[in-house]
Design brief:
The protein has 115 residues and is an alpha+beta fold. It has helices spanning 7-17, 43-53, 64-73, and strands at 2-5, 21-28, 33-39, 76-82, 91-97, 108-113.
Length: 115
């Protein structure tokens, strides 16, 4: 499993939109990725805990663990937009690639709602 920070990408999208109050909806396409908000620092502990909850081996289908992990966490997030920055430090938004594959691309959809 691998965490990829995407909070800067989300912050840029909000900044480009000029929306000061609203909701940012972000989703990632696929059956295995997930989106999470984590405090900076204990990210590896989070991944280790996931590996204990959903072991990688022992399944009939090779990447069952990836699908289960994604289902437990979610591939969508809704974040409030209420000024800048999007998230207060020390939190970050990560794309969790539960089944890393070389040369694999993920599509992240960002939608911003406001009045």
């Amino acid at each position: 499993m691998k965490l990829h920070p995407i909070d800067e990408l989300l912050g840029e999208a909000v900044e480009e939109s000029s929306v000061e109050e609203g909701v940012l909806w972000v989703s990632v396409k696929g059956a295995a990725p997930a989106l999470v908000i984590l405090e900076e620092g204990p990210e590896e502990r989070f991944v280790d805990t996931l590996r204990k909850l959903v072991p990688i081996t022992g399944w009939r289908h090779g990447n069952t663990y990836a699908h289960l992990t994604s289902t437990l966490l979610s591939a969508c997030l809704a974040l409030p937009i209420a000024g800048k920055p999007l998230l207060d430090m020390p939190y970050r938004v990560y794309l969790l690639e539960t089944h890393p594959v070389h040369n694999h691309r993920r599509t992240i959809a960002i939608t911003i709602y406001s009045e």
